[in-house]
Here is the input.
Amino acid sequence: MISKDTNVVILTGAGISAESGIRTFRDSNGLWENHRIEEVATPEGWRANPQLVWNFYQQRRRQLLEVEPNQGHEALVRLENYLENFLLVTQNVDDLHERAGSKNLIHMHGELAKLRCESCHHVETLMDEEHLKETFLSCSEGEGRLRPHIVWFNEMPMGMAEIEKALSECDVFIAIGTSGHVYPAANFLHTAKRRGAHTIGINLEPPENVHFFDEFFQGKAGEILPLLVEKWTR
Ligand code: OAD
Here is the structure.
């Protein structure tokens, strides 16, 4: 079903990083069970209590230093290396895909490793020890305060034009480890289907949109993906 010239778009969510030890959002003990979304993941929350929001993301940024990519991330690198047309879109803000070796990658919800100036919007990767504390940081280009380079609720996801173009041209769309609750990502499946793509889902639990996939594999991404990629690239 997949050959070297098949045009593949992949969407990943928190589930692919779960086996690396990063908590998902909506599973039991997920991040959103222990935090109020409106307090830590909205522009209003940042304006109301920036220290709370800053501490929340600094803790998650520090966690990046303790986790490693898993076999799911690594299998996607092998698939990318085999294909001529491949785009990986992730909703994840961790850096495990790029650390595994993924190249053609869009972080549609932003990146924990980067910070952005509130005034001039300059973006910097800042992950040294002095950047991971609870004190606010200033922009290296001016006076502005840095905020997490994260897409909060009510903000525009990143890279949408490129993602929509890739979806409109893809032959196969694969969603991995995402509950299908958050838009616009949850709509990518429908966009790909309208284009006539074959659609595949891989998830621990059946996601919200499970019935719309042509094929669905239930289980852990780190176990299923290496087997599927081995079969597809044989
Ligand atoms: P969710 O926490 O909503 O869903 C994670 C999905 O991964 C669930 O359906 C789990 O069943 C599944 N899962 C867990 N472990 C898995 C494993 N080992 N292998 C495969 N699947 C597994 O996370 P997302 O769908 O990524 O946005 O959430 C989407 C967005 O909602 C996030 O990007 C974040 C959040 O609010 C922002 O913060 C902007």
